[in-house]
Write a structure and sequence with these properties.
With 477 residues, this protein is α/β, with parallel strands linked by helices. Helices cover 44% and strands 13% of the residues.
């Protein structure tokens, strides 16, 4: 439309520069380069005007090459877990953009998922595991390092591979329940920034075991296809039976995938057969895709769940899970671990759990989970703001650095009780681990893997790489 009443340039010849500018529509007048050129080329043919606009090929080349260098440099920087921008820019930015911690969680998961698809995800470019010095033996596998990401960060198994790429040797996905459930009403996740802590009462929101099984099956099929086994049942079977030379769960050499299972909120905890049925339902569907199955009886946000840690019910549930895990149709069966609470820590309670672990033939224990207690402020932290004092009154499980000392103490107690010569159990530690010194301390206390969650939400995608470097410093390697 605009061109139909715009004067053609040749029609304007012979008219003074000022008057020409007046002829031009408003938009053209407001572009200074155009009107300036026009004014200074009284009798110049149109061809000359267009010619002047063209950049020389050399300038074009320099511009394009510099742009390519900048983009490539930016790509290398932002996809490297060592980039401090992840910790000092991305984390505060996400906190600012998403005042609600759950929204930030979803955004972070979605971003990692999309970036991974595009090949733009952060990864360990420094390959700190390659020299094997951080390697450790777990369940007969040589893990590339002793660090893991604990349950709840990837609730629906959407991003196990991006999480492995961040440097974790163990990624725990879930917890998932047999049937989908919404969890508690929002808001249900709260930050306590001055303490680098969190309170959550998600309440095991889950898309259900069938959904997770579908997601994990698809992942194996894609891996089978990429490995030349074909996108088929047969290809999937070959990968799950170890023909690709990688663990069937993680699909990554030196790494293990743990899948966490739990009961539905509506399954009455007094009906132990029904509760066991819930866990077994999940194991039947998910164990084929797991290196480790984790039984969650320690979330504080499902009423009655922690009561299942009493010796009697726990033994029955764990026996059911171990049996189901052994029945799956796969050459190697997944190992079974139980994740316990840091709050049920009396001698009697710990003894009861250890008894159930031994009786049922479970392979190990993850010590522990979030706490119902409200710890005092971290020694060198910032004072609590009045809003944070209010946040601490929210119902839910607390996580963060304050948990650490109790985690170490509990790890050594479980280690002591479960180290009998004929069947020693494997311990993973979870609770307040934030740096390499602490990771080393829980490993010294008897854990085989130091798992993190809250430290990653505050430290960003470079946290595992940083902790590995600090571990090396601790070990002088
Ligand atoms: C937001 C949030 C969600 C969590 N969801 C789960 C979960 O689904 N299952 C579980 O066993 N633990 C869950 N946890 C507990 C963590 O896995 C971990 O055991 C706990 O936070 C202590 O470790 P940390 O201090 O390193 O965070 C969750 C923790 C947080 C902060």
């Amino acid at each position: 439309m605009a061109s139909s009443y715009m004067p053609r340039l040749h029609q304007l010849k012979g008219i003074s520069a000022a008057s020409r500018t007046a002829y031009l529509p408003h938009t053209s007048r407001s572009i200074p380069t155009f009107s300036k050129r026009f004014a200074s080329t009284e009798a110049e043919p149109i061809a000359t005007i267009t010619k002047k606009k063209k950049k020389s090929p050399v300038r074009k080349f320099i511009f394009r090459t510099s742009l390519a260098f900048v983009l490539f440099g930016g790509y290398l920087y932002f996809t490297d877990t060592r980039a401090s921008a992840h910790r000092y820019i991305a984390v505060p930015l996400v906190r600012w953009l998403y005042p609600d911690a759950e929204d930030a969680h979803h955004a972070g998961v979605a971003a990692l998922k999309e970036l991974y698809k595009l090949g733009l995800h952060p990864r360990e470019r420094s390959s700190p595991d390659l020299d094997g010095k951080l390697g450790t033996e777990v369940f007969g596998y040589t893990l590339s390092n002793p660090l893991g990401i604990s349950g709840g960060l990837d609730k629906h198994a959407e991003i196990p591979d991006p999480l492995f790429a961040l440097g974790a040797a163990v990624v725990e996905v879930g917890g998932t329940t047999p049937l989908p459930q919404d969890g508690n009403p929002k808001p249900r996740v709260f930050r306590v920034v001055s303490q680098s802590g969190m309170i959550n009462r998600y309440g095991l929101n889950s898309k259900g075991a069938d959904h997770m099984a579908k997601v994990l099956k698809q992942r194996v099929r894609e891996f089978a296809y990429a490995s030349g086994f074909g996108y088929s049942d047969a290809g999937e079977e070959r990968v799950l039976n170890g023909e690709a030379g990688v663990p069937p769960g993680s699909l990554n050499e030196g790494k293990l995938l743990a899948v966490q299972v739990a009961k539905n909120k509506l399954t009455p905890e007094s009906d132990i057969a029904a509760v066991t049925g819930d866990y077994v339902y999940c194991v039947d569907r998910l164990a084929p895709y797991a290196d480790i199955v984790v039984v969650n009886v320690s979330s504080p946000n499902t009423p009655g769940l922690r009561g299942l840690q009493a010796a009697g019910p726990l033994t029955e549930i764990l026996k059911g899970v171990v049996g189901a895990a052994k029945r799956i149709d796969r050459k190697t069966k997944p190992f079974v671990m139980v994740k316990v609470s840091p709050d049920e820590d009396s001698e009697e309670q710990v003894d009861g759990i250890c008894h159930a672990v031994r009786e049922s033939g479970v392979d190990g224990v993850i010590v522990g989970n979030t706490t119902n207690r409200r710890p005092g402020p971290v020694p060198n932290g910032y004072p609590l703001s009045s809003k944070e004092k209010q946040t601490l009154t929210e119902t839910g499980g607390y996580s963060g650095p304050q948990l650490f000392e109790r985690t170490v103490a509990l790890v050594s107690r479980y280690k002591q009780k479960l180290s009998d010569a004929e069947s020693p159990k494997t311990i993973f530690a979870s609770g307040g681990i934030t740096n390499g010194k602490q990771a080393q301390k829980v490993l010294d206390a008897g854990a085989s893997v130091a798992m993190m969650y809250t430290a990653i939400t505050y430290g960003g995608t470079g946290t595992l790489t940083r902790v590995k470097n600090e571990l090396r410093q601790e070990r002088n390697i």
